[in-house]
Amino acid sequence: MSVNIPVNPTSVRAPDSPRVDLLLIAEMVAPGSRVLDVGCGDGTLLRILADKQAVDGRGIELSQAGVNSCVTQGLAVIQGDADTDLAYYPDLAFDYAILSQTIQATHNPRLVLEQLLRIGKRAVVSFPNFGHWRVRTQLMFGGHMPRTDNLPESWHDTPNIHFCTIKDFLTLCDDIGAKVERAVALNAYGTKLVSMPLFAQNLFGEQAVFLLSR
User: Rounded mean pLDDT of 16-26?
Assistant: First the structure.
């Protein structure tokens, strides 16, 4: 299986800009949409989306500190757990259900992804790629769990419990019948990679952003 990756030889992130995956996600969201940001953290993506005309952004966040930060900024965020609380949302309640850099921290990634595709007309998911060459090198030659900019914690401190590669995620999409509308792989510098075979995406992409639908 291969996915066409858009060609963009220039970096998409300035040094003081928000995370690259958040900027790409914002590009994928149409103005006027209803959006649910699952695991919204301090509300950075919701603030970015608020700059897009008439985007109705809501959030769900596990940590009380994150919820407090969002509410202080006037963002519509409630406390909740992606593993259990998405079941309470009705079908197609949102145009986009977003999960950024969080799916690897959920207990049941498959169920969470299915819920995103149930409550949103489209789902947007970003995640660190555990197949990146730096990860492979640290495992092979260092003999220890890798630590990178996207995976900074030690194995005993990390919230991540289900690492995956780009290939793994594509396999999961096939298993649940999700359609990949757009896929963007990014290198360590935040640069979109040129179109390349899946094995090369897996090797050089440090993270990935997927736009999915049923």
Answer: 85
